[in-house]
What does this fold into?
Amino acid sequence: MSLPEIHYTMLSQYFVCPKKLWWQKMNARGPLSAAIMYGCVFHKSMEYALTGQNYSVQKFMDEFLHNIDITQNNWDGRIMYRPEDPMPNDMVSWMEQAIGLCLGYRKTKPQMVELSLSHEYPELCVLAGRIDALWDGKIVDFKLAGKFYKPDPLQAACYTILNGGPGSFEFVVIRKESVPRLEVVPIPQVKSRAYLDWVVNEIIIPGAKAVFEGPYPANPGTPLCSKMFCSFYEMCAGRVR
It folds into this structure.
């Protein structure tokens, strides 16, 4: 019998709000935030750009808006816009600038792009993930981020473990300012075997058991428990009143 897969995003979502992960397990469908849509379009465009394929940010944006390329199983086709979110047409040229910044931040080409990896923990699960790029010996993960975004060391640790770590990891963050601003954020602790072993024993293994077995309580205390950040807010009995 094959082992169940677990991903960094499942662990992260469980730690923030177990109920949100429960809704996903139940295949509930809800709206997506504009930020997720823009992230999907950006990553697809980056994959094409890094591998030298012809692409169009406008085309990918239009496909997403018309549900032609739905990459989110829990999406019902609606998109949630916050007051500060730009509209899709305004994001196209901005995203083209952002991609140019990412392509220029290193002088060499990446060795690998969109690399799928997995690691088995016997009798428990398979940790799986997809690395944006391996570049000059570093794992690189691209992020579109607002003012308050803080890169997650758990993601860096999971990807480094999948790549056979310890090793080098850096987030390439594009800040959503009027003109895109690139910020490189290294995560030095993933160079330590002791740190990665701690993540496995104290986070990944117990976290995987919790993801598969529950419980799945709501967490209305998180700032993300709102209509603008949670696709399942409207249907969740544990939401903020």
Q: What stands out?
A: The chain has a mean pLDDT of 90.
